[in-house]
Amino acid sequence: MTGMPTTDDGLTGTILVCDGCGRSRRTSATGRIAWDLLWLQADQAGWSGSDRPLGPHYCTVCMGND
After folding, report:
1. Using CB atoms within 10 A of its CB, is residue 57 exposed (0-12), middle (13-18) or buried (19+)?
2. What superkingdom does the record give (predicted)?
3. Confidence (pLDDT) at 66
4. Does residue 55 sit in helix, strand or coil?
5. Using CA atoms, how far apart are residues 25 and 49, in angstroms rounded to an integer?
6. Beta bridge partners of residue 14, listed in sequence order
7. Contacts of 2 (CB under 8 A, 6+ apart)
8. Distance from C-alpha of 6 to C-alpha of 13, rounded to nearest angstrom
9. Per residue in 15-61, pLDDT tens?
10. Nearest 5°: CA angle at 62, between 15 and 48?
């Protein structure tokens, strides 16, 4: 088993990236529960797309919900 995922900026956690523009949301948690919580927060903030990690996902700017 490997350690926590690390991003290019050296931070760990779970990240949601917009497939339209690359905007991202992040949580410091990892694992399936972390994804579910991150997606719930993004959905409530106006993001759209698949509730699965593989996407696609679109931020409020790309969806025109900003």
Report:
1. buried
2. Bacteria
3. 60
4. coil
5. 14
6. 27
7. none
8. 7
9. 999 999 999 998 888 777 899 999 999 999 999 999 998 899 999 99
10. 60
Q: Which one, of 14, 7, 11, 53, lies nearest residue 34 by Cα?
A: 14
Per-residue confidence (pLDDT) for residue 10, from 0 to 100: 59
Q: What is the dihedral of CA 47, 25, 15, 29, to 10 degrees?
A: -110
pTM score of the predicted model: 0.74
Note whether 25 and 18 are within 8 A (CB): no
Copy the structure tokens of residue 39. 């997606």
pLDDT at 3 over 50: no
Give the Cβ contact number of residue 38 at 10 Å: 20
The tokens for 18 are: 């917009």
